[in-house]
């Protein structure tokens, strides 16, 4: 159900983006104003507990007894939602989906799709109204306002991934509305200056040097061996890891006990950890979360490099650093680059290859930089299925 909710969110954001991109990108001042304007406590609303529904249903006991399911639903009094296990920020639509899944009531309105809600110690407020839409975070409680949409800047034809990279380099940085869903397709502008898919590329998109039109490729080049170390075939390290990623994780020195999440366990968790597919009959998500408790930052950097040498685009999510909220737990988020994955993860691997944080802000990742060799391995693995930046 959540995926339906999410895809409709994506569609509505998408529609918003399409209307927005005819005009110039929002200035940073505009979004700052929006963020300070609407921060208000909604404690008053939260003290208005809903009326118990028992009184209404008691009157119709005779007919109710024939419909036990209906009655038990109708007579349940929903509790107020806590922070769903994560203090932090939630796009209104995601908070609503979580409230439905958890059968609880939010004390703030979720009718404005651009509202970014904050939950701290069980108390909900509207943090801001996003001027350019709201983006899903990597885990619950890490949603963020989206970057402004880029005015369409394509002269002839531009691969989505390459156009997205160009947008992030503009001042102010902006996002291409058809990215990451169309990163491997050829984008352009229509006569009204709207972003369009000029051509869907079945085999990927060739990014020509600046000034030369990009084009769809006819055949995907077979990636040669990245020259990485041999790695023995072993049983799956834990549920939800792709068999090849499982072997590579062991070769990077990971043990099953270090893995905290593969396919997202929470029913309404952010889309990044939903299942990506199956391989050899095993369900997998290309993203894995690893515990970092007890490790020094030097050890964490060494592990990130070992992971990259084994094909993982990985970030240490350090609270309060590189765009990761201070309220969230530290961990490593690692995406195995060599397998089929959902669009959000493709966008993250592309970010990683560009030295960015893989979050909605797409800022430079400062905690650690991979070696050229490690970056080359991840890039080559990614090119099995997608066009790297
Ligand atoms: Zn993760």
Describe this structure in words.
By secondary structure, the chain is an alpha+beta fold. It has three domains: 2-145, no CATH class; 158-216, no CATH class; 243-382, no CATH class. Helices cover 30% and strands 17% of the residues. It has twelve helices and 19 strands. It has a four-stranded antiparallel sheet with strand order 1-6-5-3. It has a four-stranded antiparallel sheet with strand order 14-17-19-18, sandwiched between helices. A hairpin with a 2-residue loop joins strand 5 and strand 6 (123-129). Helix 10 crosses helix 12.
In summary, what is this structure?
By secondary structure, the chain is α+β, with helices and mostly antiparallel strands. It has helices at residues 2-20, 28-37, 43-47, 54-58, 61-64, 68-75, 92-102, 160-168, 243-251, 297-309, 343-353, 372-382; strands at residues 40-41, 79-80, 88-91, 104-105, 115-120, 123-129, 134-135, 144-145, 158-159, 186-189, 195-199, 205-206, 215-216, 259-261, 277-279, 282-284, 287-290, 312-317, 331-336. Helices cover 30% and strands 17% of the residues.
